[in-house]
Structure formats: C-alpha cells, structure tokens
Amino acid sequence: MQSAHSRRKYPLFFISSLLRWRQKHLKEHAMSRTDRQIPYPETRLNVIKRFLHVLALLQNDEEQWNATSLADILTLDEGGHVVSDKNIRDSIAYIEDKLEIGISTQKGSKRTMLEEELSEEMMLQLAVLYASFIISDSTGETTLKNFLTRHSRDGLWMLARLHFACLERKKIRLDYTSNRGHENKGWEVYACHLVFRTVNLYLVIQIPGESRPRLLIANRIENLEVLDDAYDGEVKSIEELFNYSLSGYIVDHDKVKEVSITYDEMIHPQIEQFLASLEPEYTHKDGKYEAVFMSADDLYLCKQFLMYGKSIEIVGPSELRARMVELLEESLSVYTG
Fold first, then answer.
1. Could you say which of 104, 134, 164 is where a domain stops?
2. What is the DSSP string of 23-70?
3. What's the rounded Cα separation, in Å, for the pair 264 and 308?
4. Whole-prediction pTM value?
5. Is 1 within the bounds of a domain?
6. How many degrees, rounded to 5, is the angle at CA 91 between CA 87 and CA 96?
C-alpha cells in the first residue's frame, strides 16, 4: 500500500490535470450513461423510440408539454417501466446534441417545444423510422419473415451486403430462379437499389449490356458474392424508376400514357388513396368523378379496377380499354366455357 509520503511525490498540477480529465471524460460519456437508463434492458432500440416520441409530440406547439407530462404519456409505451422527468431531460439533451434539433424549455411551465420547423427531408426520414416502431406493417413483416426463414443463417448479412453493394454499385455474383422457373447460376449483375414494392422486397439490378434495369425478388437470391468491379453508368433514383407506376413494375417511359377514368362518387375515397402518388386531376359532376393521370402500369391498373365492377370505367386510352376487356373475357371464360 502506498504511504502518504510517497503520494505527496505527485505534483499538485498533475492531480489537478487528472481531475479535469476525469470531469471531461464523464461529461463526454454522459450520454452512454443515459443510454443505460432504458425501458427494456434486453433491447436498446427502445431508446430510439423514446427520442422519436418526444420529437413527434413536440412538433405541434399548440399542445403544451413539459418533462413531467411527457414522462407520463411515454410511460404508457414502455412495458411497465416508469419514465422519469430526468429520462425526458436526458432525451431532450441527446436530441439537441446528436440530431442538432433545438428544443426550447421553460422550467416550471408546460412550454417545451421545437425551436424551428423540421425540414421536409428530415420529416420524412423521421416518419419512416418512427412508423417502424408504432405502426404494424404486416405486409413488410411478412415479407421479411419469409426472407429470413429462407436465409435463416445469413439473412441480416445478405441485407447488409446488398445494401452496401448498392451504395458502391458493385457487381455481385448470385444464383437466382425467375418466376418462370429459369435458373441463373453464377449470374453476375450490378446492384443498384433495395426496395419494398407491393408484397415483395426487390433488388434493382443493372445487367451488363442492357439499357434498362430489372427487378429481382430478394427472397430468391442464393449464394451471394460481392465482386470488386463497380458500375460506372447512370443509375436512376427509386423515384425515377417507379414514376408513373403503382406496382413492382419499372417504368418504360416510352409507354407512359394519359389515362382517364370515371367512377361513382361513393368510391372516391378509395380511388383517391390508390392513385395518390400519380397526382391525378379530378373533376366532379352529377354524382360522378373523372380522374386524369399519367401511367405506364396497364396490367396492375386493370387488376385493381376490376374490384369495383361497374362502378368504374376506363375512358381512355383505347388500348387500356382493350386490355380490360381482354382480362374480363378471360375471367368470364372460366365460368361460361
């Protein structure tokens, strides 16, 4: 054990420096201590959910919140863990420090609010992440469950490797079975995007020598290998690839056409929601709506419109009307043939 005499050998400035370093170290790691004060010890993902709850509730400054009222409502979503005022203050400190989003607080009053409006880009990023915590996405979960069932040992690895291959536009080697049962062994293609469309997780690929990208169903990819070669051509964004499309169809812009439909006003809410991304122009007259929009997704449109029977009619173009007639006749032949 060190004696008092030997301890006095350390200069005073050294001890002072050590104390300053310790204070700085503790301050820098304050958030890591905060992170340990979490609702479910078995998963730190709930820390992120708490931060998102706080951000979301503070967005409307017409509603008044403080640390206590926020703690009370957040406690409802933490599985029996009681959220404290300090938990909320720590969350606010983290949001301000790490996300650089200013939050105004007034001690003793219900006036905790965001200092400025969130940008549209940040709003969308936060909403996508927030939705994954608070909205049950049965379609997405089923798709991922099927993917992970098929790739039980390396599913997360495959998602990560595909993601980073897309970022680098890397060439990948894989085995793939098409919808028609055709097997591609050791197929070499370039990875471009991962995207959910309809009920599948797709990988957008570029095949050497082809002008238009294609879609692969991620669940059917086997024996993935990332290669060194990278694609140096133009890669269109997801928005460009699926512009004028409502399904998993990559648009051929030469086939985009103006579509006009009429339908009963009672189904307008459903049609408006279905066509929202195509931004139709609507007119309303005598209990009927007309919608005019641009689309290249003929088959998917017809299949969806079939559900509404005589409540909806394709006015134009003529080739789309003909496609609908063809589908109706094929269906009718099963029951009248």
1. 134
2. HHHHHHTHHHHHHHS-S-TT-THHHHHHHHHHHHHHS-TTS---HHHH
3. 10
4. 0.69
5. no
6. 150
Average pLDDT for 248-270 = 91
Whether residue 53 is predicted with pLDDT greater than 70 in this model: the reply is: yes
The tens digit of pLDDT for each residue in 137-151 reads: 778 888 899 999 999
Q: DSSP string covering 264-294, please?
A: EGGGHHHHHHHTGGG--EEEEETTEEEEEEE
Residues in the chain: 337
Assess whether 197 and 293 both reside in one domain: no
Q: Does residue 39 fall inside a structural domain?
A: yes
Structure tokens given for 110: 């219900």
Among 43-57, 95-109, 262-276, which range has the highest average pLDDT? 262-276
Number of structural domains the chain divides into: 3
**Please, what is the angle between helix 120-134 and helix 45-58, to 10°?**
130
Residue-wise pLDDT tens digits, 274-328 = 999 899 999 999 889 999 999 988 999 999 999 999 999 999 999 999 999 999 9
Please list the residues that pair with 99 across neighbouring strands.
none
What range defines the domain where residue 327 resides?
253-336
Say how far apart CA 228 and CA 226 lie, in whole Å. Answer: 7
Residue 2 lies inside a defined structural domain of this protein: no
31 CB-near residues (< 8 Å, 6+ apart):
90, 93, 94, 97, 98
Tokens standing for residue 98: 């790490």
Same domain, 232 and 261: no
Phi, psi of 135 (to 5 degrees): -115, 130
Domain boundary, last residue among 184, 211, 241: 241
Of the candidates 199, 196, 55, 34, which has an alpha carbon nearest to the alpha carbon of residue 125?
Answer: 55
